User: Which sequence fits this backbone?
């Protein structure tokens, strides 16, 4: 029965059960042929003892060569099949892990470090592959050969076999002890490796901050400390493994000494019997207890020698097994995580039950019109209230600006629309339907979202802008796609900048767009969102890094492109929001003011104070 910790691998093993059966047959043939080798030696020794001839030497030499050749063929097939399957399962497991990570909610990545996730997806996955490949192969070889050899050894001498396997109970206790210790230590080592990976990832990503604050030496010292701790733990595991193998070899050596001593006595008794019979005459019978011929003794010792590597490999397999199970537990911790935000099960008009997906007729939604409504919305993070009693309706095709002090809940509010976070059922609606009734892929396909923190991939400008294109768009020709990318770049006012780059739209932007300025990154992200032609466009302070002149150009383009579509933008600049159809002022999680620019100025509230402060700043800047 498979151990509980290895049960997550069952679906993958079932997927390749045909190959595993073939691999098992190769193991049987490989070891079955190799078990015959000592029997050939036994016959050869006894036959040559009575007289050496050229024919006998040729016959036994060819038999040994044939056994070695057949064993080599099946050993190659065993490794090719079993190790190959382990690589295939590693491929499937890596793809499944990545796909699962892609589906996990945004909050998961807020709770877990990127370096830790990367360590599990690389180092731990490799340890699981070793468990599925070499560990299974060597375990199968050891079990099959030991079972076969045991039968022949019992046939030669039951007493010697008992002596040979006398250390096994002690070895079993040793294996259990070392196996448990190896598992515990490897878990701690992998946790430390995750810490090192996380620290390295954060340092590489934040290289500019580290240099700006002159913290290079401090970070180097901190990394060295973590690295020393990792080495210390690894050396502890090495010392433990270093004790395991010699211990097993010592037990095997003790068994060999016992066999040589006891078996030698039986061979001597056998030789004595032969001489006595020769002396007394052929008609005389004489029996000495515990006698053995030389050929049987050679065969028995050959079996002992052949068992040397399986016993040594057993210690290595235990090490791989414990590492693999520890790593599998760490990977399963990720795979067992369920997305907090997923398509819900919907009951259709006919009472049918279906999961929210664009492929289901029950939940398939037509193109969104774009009307958004927040109805009696309350939202909290981990018990901390963020939004309170929000009632807001945004007509389809209109524009809404949201302003308010830092921490008032602006980003949280707009994040509820594409379900980056989930609000209470029925509190967020699109086109009069609760947002949870829309399949996630359909909902987000109709929304262009530009977050505060602009993220660009280590790719070309063209690929970064085209990142959000739908599958239908991907069937266009290269020229048609490039024309659309250029139009989106023009609307985001980044086209002129791209034209000045050495490679134009094929210019690499570096990791996270490091070669671009903040304003260029924001405009590239806006172009990416506009390329999708969304029914709803959300700009979360996406113009904060551009100057007012460029901002004005972008807004003019947006008004033209988004005519008839819903636009929501968050900003701290009055110049950005003043031409919106409606402006909502958030303060401490509540909407305290709402109206047009002129209406809010007339109320002489928070918005008026914000407007007056910015006017003063502009006047001071001109002086």
Assistant:
């Amino acid at each position: 029965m498979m151990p509980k910790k290895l049960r997550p691998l069952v679906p993958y093993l079932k997927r390749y059960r045909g190959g595993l059966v073939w691999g098992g047959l190769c193991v049987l043939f490989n070891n079955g042929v190799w078990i015959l080798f000592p029997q050939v030696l036994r016959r050869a020794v006894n036959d040559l003892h009575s007289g050496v001839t050229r024919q006998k030497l040729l016959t036994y030499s060819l038999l040994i060569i044939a056994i070695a050749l057949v064993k080599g063929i099946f050993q190659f097939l065993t490794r090719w099949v079993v190790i190959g399957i382990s690589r295939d399962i590693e491929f499937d497991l890596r793809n499944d892990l990545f796909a699962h990570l892609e589906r996990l909610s945004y909050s998961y990545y807020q709770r877990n470090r990127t370096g830790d996730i990367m360590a599990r997806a690389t180092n731990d996955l490799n340890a699981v592959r070793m468990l599925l490949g070499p560990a299974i192969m060597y375990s199968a070889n050891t079990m099959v050969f030991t079972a076969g050899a045991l039968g022949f050894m019992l046939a030669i001498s039951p007493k010697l076999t008992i002596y040979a396997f006398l250390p096994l109970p002690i070895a079993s206790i040793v294996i259990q002890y070392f196996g448990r210790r190896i598992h515990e230590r490897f878990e701690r080592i992998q946790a430390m490796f995750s810490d090192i990976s996380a620290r390295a990832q954060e340092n590489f990503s934040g290289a500019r901050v580290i240099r700006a604050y002159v913290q290079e030496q401090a970070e180097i010292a901190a990394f060295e400390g973590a690295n020393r701790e990792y080495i210390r733990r690894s050396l502890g595991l090495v010392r433990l493994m270093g004790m395991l193998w010699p211990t097993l070899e010592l037990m095997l050596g003790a068994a060999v000494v016992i066999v040589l001593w006891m078996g030698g006595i039986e061979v001597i008794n056998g030789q004595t019997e032969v001489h006595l019979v020769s002396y007394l005459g052929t008609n005389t019978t004489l029996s000495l207890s515990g006698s053995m011929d030389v050929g049987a003794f050679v065969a028995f010792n050959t079996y002992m020698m052949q068992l040397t590597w399986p016993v040594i490999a057993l210690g290595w397999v235990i090490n791989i097994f414990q590492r693999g199970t520890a790593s599998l537990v760490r990977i399963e911790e990720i795979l067992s995580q369920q997305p907090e935000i997923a398509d819900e099960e919907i009951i259709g008009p006919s009472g049918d039950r279906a999961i929210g997906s664009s492929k289901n007729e029950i939940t398939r939604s037509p193109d969104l019109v774009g009307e958004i409504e927040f109805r009696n919305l309350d939202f909290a993070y981990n018990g901390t209230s963020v939004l309170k009693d929000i009632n807001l309706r945004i007509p389809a095709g209109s524009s809404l600006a949201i302003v308010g002090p830092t921490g008032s809940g602006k980003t949280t509010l707009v994040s509820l629309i594409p379900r980056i976070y989930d609000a209470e059922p029925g509190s967020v609606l699109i086109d009069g339907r609760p947002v949870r009734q829309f399949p996630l892929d359909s909902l987000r396909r109709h929304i262009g979202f530009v977050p505060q923190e602009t993220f660009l991939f280590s790719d070309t400008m063209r690929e970064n802008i085209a990142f959000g294109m739908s599958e239908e768009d991907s069937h266009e020709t290269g020229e048609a796609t490039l024309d659309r990318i250029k139009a989106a770049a023009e609307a985001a006012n980044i086209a002129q900048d791209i034209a000045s780059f050495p490679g134009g739209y094929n210019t690499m932007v570096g990791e996270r767009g490091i070669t671009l300025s903040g304003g260029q990154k924001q405009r590239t992200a806006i172009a990416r969102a506009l390329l999708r032609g969304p029914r709803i466009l959300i700009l979360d302070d996406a113009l904060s890094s551009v100057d007012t002149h460029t901002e004005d150009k972008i807004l003019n383009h947006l008004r033209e492109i988004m005519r008839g579509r819903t636009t929501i933008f968050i900003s701290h600049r009055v110049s950005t929001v003043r031409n919106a159809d409606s402006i909502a002022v958030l303060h401490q999680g509540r909407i305290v003011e709402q109206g047009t620019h002129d209406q809010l100025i007339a109320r002489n509230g928070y918005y008026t104070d914000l407007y007056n402060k910015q006017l003063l700043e502009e006047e001071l800047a001109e002086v």
Q: What stands out?
A: Residues 454-533 form a domain with the Rossmann fold fold (CATH 3.40.50.300).
